[in-house]
Amino acid sequence: MSKLNLSVRVGNIQLRNPTILASGILGVTKALLKRVAENGAGAVTTKSMSKEPREGHKNPTVITFEAGMLNAVGYSNPGIEKAAREFADIQDVGVPAIASVIGTHKEDFVRVVEGLSGTHFSAIEIPLSCPHTPGFGLLAGQGTPQATFEITSAVRKVTELPLFIKLSPSIPEISTIAKAAEDAGANAITAVNSMGPGMIINIEAQKPILDYKVGGVTGDALRPIATRCVYDLYEAINIPIIGTGGVSTGRHAIEMMMAGASAVGIGTGVYYRGIDVFKKICEEISQWMRENSISDINTIKGAAHD
Amino acid sequence: MSKLNLSVRVGNIQLRNPTILASGILGVTKALLKRVAENGAGAVTTKSMSKEPREGHKNPTVITFEAGMLNAVGYSNPGIEKAAREFADIQDVGVPAIASVIGTHKEDFVRVVEGLSGTHFSAIEIPLSCPHTPGFGLLAGQGTPQATFEITSAVRKVTELPLFIKLSPSIPEISTIAKAAEDAGANAITAVNSMGPGMIINIEAQKPILDYKVGGVTGDALRPIATRCVYDLYEAINIPIIGTGGVSTGRHAIEMMMAGASAVGIGTGVYYRGIDVFKKICEEISQWMRENSISDINTIKGAAHD
Amino acid sequence: MIEQPAMVKICDIREESPLVKTLFFESSMNFIPGQFIMVWIPMVDEKPFTVSSIQKNLLGISVLKKGTFTDLLHQKRIGDTIGIRGPYGNGFHLQPELHSCVVGGGIGIASLATVIDTLPKITIIQGTRTASEIIYRKRFTDMRFCTEDGSLGFRGTTVDLLEDIVKKQQFQKVYTCGPEKMMFKIVELCKKHHIACEVSLDRYIKCGFGICGQCDCSGQRTCVEGPVFTIPELNTMEDFGRVALLKTGERVDVNNHRQLSYISIDNAK
Amino acid sequence: MIEQPAMVKICDIREESPLVKTLFFESSMNFIPGQFIMVWIPMVDEKPFTVSSIQKNLLGISVLKKGTFTDLLHQKRIGDTIGIRGPYGNGFHLQPELHSCVVGGGIGIASLATVIDTLPKITIIQGTRTASEIIYRKRFTDMRFCTEDGSLGFRGTTVDLLEDIVKKQQFQKVYTCGPEKMMFKIVELCKKHHIACEVSLDRYIKCGFGICGQCDCSGQRTCVEGPVFTIPELNTMEDFGRVALLKTGERVDVNNHRQLSYISIDNAK
Ligand SMILES: Cc1cc2nc3c(=O)[nH]c(=O)nc-3n(C[C@H](O)[C@H](O)[C@H](O)COP(=O)(O)OP(=O)(O)OC[C@H]3O[C@@H](n4cnc5c(N)ncnc54)[C@H](O)[C@@H]3O)c2cc1C
Ligand SMILES: Cc1cc2nc3c(=O)[nH]c(=O)nc-3n(C[C@H](O)[C@H](O)[C@H](O)COP(=O)(O)OP(=O)(O)OC[C@H]3O[C@@H](n4cnc5c(N)ncnc54)[C@H](O)[C@@H]3O)c2cc1C
Ligand SMILES: Cc1cc2nc3c(=O)[nH]c(=O)nc-3n(C[C@H](O)[C@H](O)[C@H](O)COP(=O)(O)O)c2cc1C
Ligand SMILES: Cc1cc2nc3c(=O)[nH]c(=O)nc-3n(C[C@H](O)[C@H](O)[C@H](O)COP(=O)(O)O)c2cc1C
Ligand code: FES
Ligand code: FES
Questions:
Q1: Res D231 pLDDT > 50
Q2: What confidence score (pLDDT) does residue C257 get?
Q3: Is D143 a domain residue?
Q4: Model pLDDT for residues B230-241, shown as the tens digit of each residue
Q5: What is the reported pLDDT for A135?
Q6: CB contact under 8 A, C4 and B27
């Protein structure tokens, strides 16, 4: 059998393989992004960056449960000025790096993207979908077609980089919102952010465990929902999809791609299987491709559709 | 320590314990409802009944995954005429029985409820929230405050039985919809129905496993979302809540009640732990109450709130 | 236990009769005779079948062509794939130490084939409408046949033949699978003669793992507590021999063929 | 491994010094010396603490009163509960066969207490600003003390004392925990003398299980690859002795006390 091709394109970015570190996982420093790249990721995404520094919610901010993870980190980040310094030489990471940009008003997004002008990111990702941070995402009304269109358009004007819009699984009609993003010039959709929010109560303490009480659900619990979102989006839009939610094995990644994803985001998988989850997933994909006589991963994209 | 009290009230119905068989699980025949009662349930709910008979979706209709279950049964039922005959002597079951009633138009709900007039159900439950059956629930636009108000009002006029409205976890603003139900005369809210929908693809077959492609997600994956819904509802409405979603242990039941539930619905738990899950949960609740010197289960209701 | 359908490749096909084929595939599932699997044809449907042959990692299902799904199974070729999950149900409670008789009506013999493989000293009765419908003739060389038209072996029903044999030879246990009317009569016979008996019921199976309630028979789930039931259990099950549920959940006469033809061959009239 | 905080009852409290208390509770967690747990006070916060005492099912954490959270821990009474999850991190790589020295600065000695319990032949150095801050005097009767003000034992820093001792006695391994400036100098000293050394780093811990990236030190997660690092590892970690991240992720001088007072007692100037 000829050599396997695992490389994929998202917009005009070429990835050596379809695994992408999802935003908010490890992406606090360039050093950690580099380490993730060394562990096999095809691309990496930074922790989301806002105009001003943010301490985020108090601890506990992340807990696990039998079906996944619950988090309400609250977008802690040092603010765009310091973040831009941290990621100044981001090309050192060795794989394409995606800058995650958040804001409350559309001007904030623009300011943050402008703040990144000195850096060498390969793309900008904009989550309009966080379910647990006041002033951002769903809690700032960003989960509507209008808001999506406006924010995407505003950012589109100030950058030539590929623009990925990240959507929530917890809003009805994800396709409508994705179309608004596409119309406004987005180059890809990242589907999805964490779902919910959800709550876990410690019954001895008689209190929610997360300090913010509620948080977004990720991991296995999210996977069927994320897969369905990707499947629906694939039929609704023409730009590529980064399928994100509960991917921690090669089989999961293949499932996401068959639903229509061009690449897969991996977050909670780092917890399930370690920082080398990227390498492991790629090996599992390769083995499956060999067993099923598939030489180019791109041929399975959307295969589950009629 | 004095005798433990596990009995709770939902509306004007007294249950010997807070466990209720959720709709769509086993509730096809009176004989199975009776068996569930013998296995410890405090109350039982029938499979949802519609005006006309329905074969439901083709198989596979229910599959499990590591974090729960995915189902798209499609409301198979013999239609109200034959269902009313099946459940004619429902009092034989020995615990309160709840009739689940579905429809497309508000007149359908009324017709089904009227069709139950000769039976001895203790309450009517109306799911306005199914995520995977065309013509019903979310797919019939029933997940809005207006539709909820109208359907609840219409049914309210034709029955004196306690009326439970069952809501979806997958719509924003569950509290608004619950309030509409409360305003229209509902006596309790069942929170929640299955979430999503979600999809699982078999990568060898390259096809979604469920014949209907998508289905509602239940079990562990749903629990944090359901708990948060119950927590929010407890602060928004004054009628009791039947907390449903991922409850399969005594600890889960206690968690739901601390979030604000008066009783708990159990569906997927029957798969996780067998048909005697009700008995097991009650034993686990009792043991926890003893260990924590709590003699009346009702004292923990809403305990997780500030 | 495989929870989600695993795709397996058909590696051998045996024509057992004009209407019955056995499909073989590799799987390492562990079976108790009498358990069943759910067989999936993607985009079509998923239905229950007994495993009729167990040889190390090679399993077989014997399929009677009866409707759309079984017709599609008959069209499968070597190398095609089907999805399987399971095993489900309880299986027979095998008692090798007893003198036993196995009574199969129509395709019901498929459920008993692995019982026959396992038990050392048994009498085997296979009944069909006519000689061409008899299967497993090479596999089990010591079967007693009965056909409705008398074209092979005893002329009449399996119940008649069993009654005949019981007069001469006392069995301690009967295992049976076939049309419910037949099984009902066999249970009556066994009760009369104080013979233990286990029957494998046929009800509409949806989930296969005890959650949907579709396979109810008087409060017993055919897919979990069954499909095999003993006489004491059947004594508490009013619906046995009388009522089954349609796909809608509607109760119908289990012997009414227009509504419900679980087994197309009814030689127990 | 406990993933969600388990509430445990404080069953004993020992005052180790005016600012340090050891809280004991029952738990059956299995620890490697140097691992840590996350301690939860509901509605307040959750922070990392080393287990400083392991006796069968009785665990203890020694807490230096430093800010809001540790103050609240000091207010806890016997019978009160706290939440714990863990253990997290790698722990020390204990080599009982080597002649070793343990060097604790300030509350850092808490991380080394279970190392001391485990290793047979070791020299123990505890350094603080002043005599009243010394802890575990009864627990470890053979400690060498050093205080900045000379109120007990050697006058000066632990680094000075270690340097003194090393001149007379050759160690094969040093285990250390304390202010990073101190540990940095100890590592330099060990390199010079070709002594193996393991240090337990202090970084802002958020999730504790390797997902948030908050505890980064040059690409190493303090909560997973650490908190214990060896000299070869530290050689690749530029940030060691120099940079730590604030709660926002901002990089700051690890020795700058206005910003970051991981250990309030810095006797390594
Ligand atoms: C535990 C069990 C084991 C079985 N083992 C075998 C076997 O080894 N070999 C074999 O040939 N058949 C077996 N059957 C019967 C087999 O499932 C049906 O013959 C098959 O589903 C018919 O499908 P069809 O589309 O070809 O026919 P259809 O035209 O759909 O149906 C013909 C009849 O089959 C029955 N049927 C349809 N769907 C189901 C279902 N999901 N569950 C149960 N009955 C159904 C109905 O009574 C229907 O009237 C078994 C059934 C059960 C319950
Ligand atoms: C692996 C590890 C083990 C530790 N073991 C112990 C121990 O056994 N005994 C002990 O007394 N202390 C220990 N600490 C330090 C302890 O976590 C902090 O003293 C405590 O969090 C201070 O909280 P506070 O609210 O009292 O003080 P604050 O006023 O919040 O903070 C004082 C300083 O403590 C540090 N700090 C605050 N929160 C954290 C955090 N989440 N993670 C790390 N540092 C933080 C910051 O530098 C801050 O400036 C350990 C830290 C780490 C990383
Ligand atoms: C601890 C944690 C922090 C996260 N922070 C962010 C974030 O800052 N920005 C963002 O867009 N998504 C964030 N997410 C969402 C992830 O990027 C991802 O969309 C989600 O976790 C689903 O993927 P997974 O199931 O693989 O984790 C976070 C998720 C987790 C678990
Ligand atoms: C197989 C299956 C069938 C269901 N059918 C119905 C139904 O007919 N009507 C209804 O209101 N809810 C139905 N539900 C939803 C359940 O009643 C319940 O709300 C949901 O499963 C969440 O609870 P659980 O996690 O305990 O299963 C069904 C759920 C399952 C798993
Ligand atoms: S087939 Fe669903 S319970 Fe038996
Ligand atoms: S504290 Fe989150 S990665 Fe270490």
A1: yes
A2: 56
A3: yes
A4: 999 999 999 999
A5: 87
A6: no
Domain count along chain D: 2
Q: Which of D107, D88, D96, D105 is nearest to D34 (CA)?
A: D88
Quote the ipTM score.
Answer: 0.95
d(CA B200, CA B209): 6
Amino acid D197: pLDDT: 97
B86 touches chain A (CB under 8 A): no
Q: How many contacts (CB atoms, under 8 Å) link B and C?
A: 128
State pLDDT tens for residues C83-93: 999 999 999 99
Identify the chains in contact with A, defined as 3+ C-beta pairs within 8 A.
B, D
Question: Of the candidates D88, D123, D145, which is a domain's last residue?
Answer: D88
Residue found by looking up tokens 């061009």 in the block: A262
Average pLDDT over residues B200-229: 98
Identify the chains in contact with D, defined as 3+ C-beta pairs within 8 A.
Answer: A
CA gap D196, D178 in Å, rounded: 17
Both C76 and C157 in one domain: the answer is no
CB-based contact B65 A199, cutoff 8 Å = no
**What's the whole-number average pLDDT of chain B?**
96
D246 lines ligand 2 (CB under 6 A): no
In ligand 2, the atom with minimum distance to the C-alpha of D223 is 1
D117 falls within a domain: yes
Geometric angle at alpha carbon D115, from D145 and D5, rounded to 5°:
115
Q: Is D202 in the pocket of ligand 2 (CB under 6 A)?
A: yes
Measured from the alpha carbon of residue D217, the closest ligand is: 6
* Protein residues with CB under 6 Å of any ligand 1 atom: C 36, 47-50, 52, 61-64, 66-70, 107, 110, 202-205, 227, 260-262
| B254/A196 Cβ within 8 A | no
Q: Residue D132 has what pLDDT?
A: 95
Residues of B in contact with A208 (CB under 8 A): 231, 304
Residues D42 and D105 in one domain: no
Q: What confidence tens digit (pLDDT) does each residue in D48-91 have?
A: 999 999 998 899 999 999 999 999 999 999 999 999 999 999 99
Q: Which of C245, C225, C42 is nearest to B77 (CA)?
A: C245
> What is the rounded average pLDDT of the residues C169-189?
95
The tokens 């307040």 sit on which residue? D44
Minimum mean pLDDT range among A164-173, C169-178, D8-17: A164-173
CB–CB of B220 and A65 under 8 A?
Answer: yes
Cβ contact, residue pair A76, D248, below 8 Å: yes
pLDDT at D267: 31
Look up the CATH superfamily of A8-50+79-193+220-300.
Answer: Aldolase class I (3.20.20.70)
| H or E element that contains B2 | none
Task: Report residue A259: phi and psi, to 5°.
Answer: -70, -20
- Do C211 and C232 fall into the same domain? yes
Q: Which ligand 4 atom sits nearest the alpha carbon of residue B194?
A: 20
Instruction: Give the least confident one: A127-141, B6-20, C240-254.
Output: A127-141
- Number of Cβ pairs < 8 A linking chain A and chain B: 128
Domains of chain B, residue spans:
8-50+79-193+220-300
Q: What pLDDT, in 10s, does the model give residues A174-213?
A: 999 999 999 999 999 999 999 999 999 999 999 999 999 9
Which residues have CB under 8 Å from A208's CB, separation 6+? A199, A200, A201, A202, A214, B231, B304
Neighboring chain B residues of C43 at a CB cutoff of 8 Å: 207, 211
**pLDDT per residue as tens digits for the range D89-119:** 999 999 999 999 999 999 999 999 999 999 9
Tokens found for residue C62: 């014997």
Is the CB–ligand 3 distance for residue A219 below 6 Å?
A: yes
Q: How many CA atoms lie within 13 A of D259 on its CB side?
A: 16
CA angle C134, C135, C138 (to 5 degrees): 120
- Give the three-class secondary structure for B254: helix
Claim to verify: residue D68 and residue D144 sit in the same structural domain? no
